[in-house]
């Protein structure tokens, strides 16, 4: 990994699924996620190639050269969708969206006409990985950045992708774009993001994919210890790092917005619902109601992915009708803490045509 803010040695493993991806397990059409008697360990060895101003890895920053392939269902990919929108890079880096489910081979472009990505000409994201690495041995994960001209994957290093969108693509940011990784806060931010990753982002997976009672209970306790810490931290500050949104908020949001819909029940993270944690619930609603967050959130894709793909946890494949989503638009009161989402900047404009979430997928009442 090229950044330490999202991984620890204890979180390295060989689960075969990477971020959110299709593994190589042959026991199931969709892949197995739980190993009996063991705790969950995430494989965090991603393709470390970077897109940079100086092009030192062979991939320079260049508008129109790359395509971000993401799944609205996946929290790791959702980060990149949000950051791309907040920074106004929609006209600079194109975006392809996969369907919410995948089989053991790959994410697929089943939402596009004919099931083919209109830019890459691929049916499966796997094709972009194999175009560069014919014997690629690991899971096919999202997000992935693909070079349009060659159809080859450049990187799937999801924490570095979003940081580089901030740090390397600055010349192409929209006017009024926020500074999501402010230099003066980076040391503290890295510590906060590290804890959010290990204890919350990945913590819910350690609960859901636990293969023993002992590993589940340890993961459960770690998760809610961290959520209690976040309740306290956010009680007197509007955002994780103070008065404005940063990358740290993006990373926490994508787990919180999935909590009641998926993690509370499906992953057995059931001490409290998000809606029963007053500070985090208000904080999450504040973000949801901010352009770039709620307008990139697709609850139908989220629920379909987890409840259909994880068939060893939910063998019936039944997708719950709930929860009631109307609370996401209720007043949050967080503005009383001061600050503003974009500081001296401005919110992003309307979602581009063709990138809007289907309103039927987020029925808010």
Q: Uncertain runs with pLDDT below 50, 5 residues or more?
A: 1-18, 24-28
CATH class of the largest domain equals Mainly Alpha
The count of domains is: 2
Strand composition percent: 5-15%
Distance between the termini: 42 Å
Number of strands: 6
**How big is the Rg?**
19 Å
From the spread of the alpha carbons, the general shape counts as globular
Q: Write down the CATH topology of the largest domain.
A: Glutathione S-transferase Yfyf (Class Pi), Chain A, domain 2
Second-tier CATH architecture of the largest domain: Up-down Bundle
Instruction: Kindly report the spatial arrangement of strands forming the biggest sheet.
Output: 3-2-5-6
Largest sheet descriptor? 4 strands, mixed
Structural class: alpha+beta
SSE order: EEHEHEEEHHHHHHH
Helical segment count: 9
What's the mean pLDDT score? 91
**Percentage of residues in helical conformation:** 25-40%
Report on this model:
- The protein is built from nine helices and six strands.
- By secondary structure, it is of the alpha+beta class.
- The longest helix is centred in the middle third of the chain and has 21 residues.
- It is globular, with a radius of gyration of 19 Å.
- The N terminus is likely disordered.
């Amino acid at each position: 990994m090229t950044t330490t803010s999202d991984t620890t040695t204890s979180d390295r493993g060989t689960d075969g699924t990477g971020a959110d991806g299709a593994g190589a397990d042959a026991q199931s059409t969709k892949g197995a996620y739980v190993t009996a008697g063991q705790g969950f360990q995430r494989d965090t060895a991603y393709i470390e190639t970077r897109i940079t101003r100086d092009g030192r890895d062979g991939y320079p920053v260049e508008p129109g050269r790359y395509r971000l392939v993401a799944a609205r269902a996946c929290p790791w990919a959702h980060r990149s969708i949000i950051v791309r929108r907040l920074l106004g890079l929609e006209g600079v880096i194109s975006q392809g969206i996969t369907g919410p489910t995948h089989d053991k081979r790959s994410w697929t472009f089943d939402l596009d006409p004919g099931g083919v990505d209109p830019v890459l000409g691929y049916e499966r994201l796997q094709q972009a990985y194999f175009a560069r690495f014919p014997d690629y041995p690991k899971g096919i994960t999202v997000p992935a950045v693909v070079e349009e001209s060659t159809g080859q994957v450049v990187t799937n290093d999801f924490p570095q992708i979003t940081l580089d969108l901030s740090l390397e693509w600055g010349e192409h940011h929209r006017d009024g774009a926020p500074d999501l990784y402010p230099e003066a806060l980076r040391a503290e931010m890295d510590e906060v993001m590290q804890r959010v990753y290990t204890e919350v982002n990945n913590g819910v997976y350690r609960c859901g994919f636990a293969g023993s009672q002992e590993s589940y209970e340890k993961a459960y306790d770690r998760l809610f210890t961290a959520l209690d810490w976040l309740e306290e931290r956010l009680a007197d500050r509007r955002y994780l790092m103070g008065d404005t949104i940063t990358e740290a908020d993006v990373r926490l949001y994508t787990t919180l917005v999935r909590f009641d819909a998926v993690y509370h029940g499906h992953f057995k993270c059931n001490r409290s619902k998000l809606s029963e944690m007053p500070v985090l619930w208000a904080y999450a609603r504040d973000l949801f109601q901010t352009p770039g967050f709620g307008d990139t959130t697709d609850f139908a894709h989220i629920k379909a992915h987890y409840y259909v793909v994880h068939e060893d946890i939910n063998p019936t494949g039944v997708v719950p009708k709930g929860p009631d989503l109307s609370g996401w638009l209720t007043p949050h009161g967080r503005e009383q803490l001061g600050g503003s989402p974009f500081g001296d900047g401005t919110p992003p404009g309307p979602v581009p045509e063709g990138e809007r979430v289907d309103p039927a997928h987020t029925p808010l009442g």
